[in-house]
Amino acid sequence: MRTALVYHGEMTAARLLWEDPECEIERPERLTAALERLQQEGLERRCLQLAAREASEAELGLVHSPEYVSLLRGTSALGTEELRALSGQYDAVYFHPSTFHCARLAAGAALQLVDAVLTGAAHNGLALVRPPGHHSQRAAASGFCVFNNVALAAKHAQQRHGLHSVLYFSWHRYEHGRFWPYLRESDADAIGRGQGRGFTVNLPWNQVGMGNADYMAAFLHVLLPVAFEFDPELVLISAGFDSAIGDPEGQMQATPECFAHLTQLLQGLAGGRVCAVLEGGYHLESLSQSVCMVVKALLGDPAPPLSGPMVPQHSALESIQSARAAQAPHWTSLRQQGSAPILSSSTWSPEERPSPVSPGGPKFEAAEAQTSAVLSSLLDQLHLHPTPPVRTAVALTALDAALVLPPEVLLQEGSAPQEETQAWARLHKALAQDTAFIALGKVLHLLNGILDGQVSSGIATTPAIAVTLEVAILHGLSHRAQRVLCVAVGHLDRPPDLASDGRTLWLNIRGKEAAALSTFHVSVPLPGTTGGFLSCILALVLPLAYGFQPDLVLVVLGPAHGLQDPQAALLAALLRGPAGGRVLVLVEQESPSQLVGVLARVLHGEAPPSLGPFSMASPEDLQALIHLRGQLEAQWKMLQVAGEAGDRAEAECRECGGTVLP
């Protein structure tokens, strides 16, 4: 993976020259803390380092008015009192003699990153910039933001590189319109105008404290379905970390590793062409750790497992439901998942503003203590479980000359000790046969490497896939793994002797019928369209996987699995997340070398190939998904997409066989 890091030390020059409690959190140390952590973690040297350039005034004019650009140019000659007076004309902004230069560097860094990715000089990247840009308007600075860096990047991508439509998604602290900037158009029912209707997706958070489960649910049930249907050519991330734990502005609870998971999920889009541009984030330790997590994900490193219970809050479900309701008329992917969206607009009342958490007060001190504990725990976990030295290994019973692997992928030659292989082979006569026995030894050796932290993920071939899978499950459970997720694709039955103790979640795709035989045994037919397949993965497989929080993921492509290579690749890529990258893919010995190659590439961190044009799910596939979600969502909370009112409406919807739309 070639990841660009765009930065310039001169962006730290602008700073607050007078006392202003509202603006003092936007300080140069935000950049230096993030860069120092990247250097300490050895991440900066792994990136393609690019020195940011200034955006030209013509480039700034893609979004901003000439008068506004001229006004900003003039700030470099103003004295402190003049700067203070000018700053007072805007909302939560301060100017410095270096502001124009810094803001041009920030905008130029975003444009430079887009150029690097779209010309192929880099696969993806991060622009580490300040001042931020997402609140900036055409002719006004706002909320620490001077030029709208990501809006400029989008326009630049369209005009210089010929990209077309833009889909805008934003989640933000809103509190029914009572939180800054108190904009009615930030609510869920603000979806764009004219031909742009449906291309603005707002997901307003109406209470503070949203955590990992809430952000993951928003991705799985709103952003990703729409984004895969939209099929972008480029993904631009306004990477604001005021949603990170400890941040005084956002007051949310997303931990740093959550941002790695979100970034990794976005890499399934646009061939992995992802450009992240730093926006907010004002708790230095939380910011710097979160930035590192994003860069690791861009580099292809596995994301650490998510911490905390994966149960979305009721308020988050209400926001998700409202966003889905507003967007459902415009996106087939939201209509076909079988939910019952009911639009519930927020009560907009800017007069009722929430009280900020004052530094030094009891609430602030308690929040700081919690943040320190969480961040220290994450660092301890990363120290105890460092990134494995081998990211991906492939174990084959016979080498195929047509197989092409990335240079960094290890072609495993070793096997487990003969005694260990023989002990497991006694479970089934089929494993005693020569080729199956050799394959079993290789599978056990690879699995030991994954569970011992020497290898992150791997692929193995075997001529006896069903019985080898059973051994892999039992061996995993007896060797460090507390919970094993098995996603079995094809004609494969759950091993009859597998204990029903909640330690194994068996999910069969291409089962004979849609059935939840128990909380931990689920079967679903393989959908026949791209839309049906995506809904199955995003609305069923991933919510179950993240809710289960496994220590190991087994993906098995068995007899008559029916997956095309891009489908198999996307499934494997998306399942890298739930177990912190610990994924073993088992395929039949006769599988084409092209399939093994594409699986190795996505497990190594490359983007999966496109599924092709979006086509909606068949009525049969839709009904199967509705049926399963109805059976399972009481036990698996990550499947839920609605609050209590939505739950009642969805039950009525199932009874009448329709979908409630606004």
UniProtKB/TrEMBL annotation:
PANTHER family according to UniProt: HISTONE DEACETYLASE HDAC1-RELATED, POLYAMINE DEACETYLASE HDAC10
Start-end of Polar residues biased regions: 333-349
Organism for this UniProt entry: Ailuropoda melanoleuca (Giant panda)
Chain positions covered by the region annotation Disordered: 328-364
Name of one Pfam family that matches: Hist_deacetyl
GO biological process: epigenetic regulation of gene expression
Residue ranges occupied by any Histone deacetylase domain in the UniProt entry: 25-168
This protein's name: Histone deacetylase 10
Matching InterPro entries: HDACs (IPR000286), His_deacetylse_dom (IPR023801), His_deacetylse_dom_sf (IPR037138), Ureohydrolase_dom_sf (IPR023696)
Annotated GO MF terms: deacetylase activity
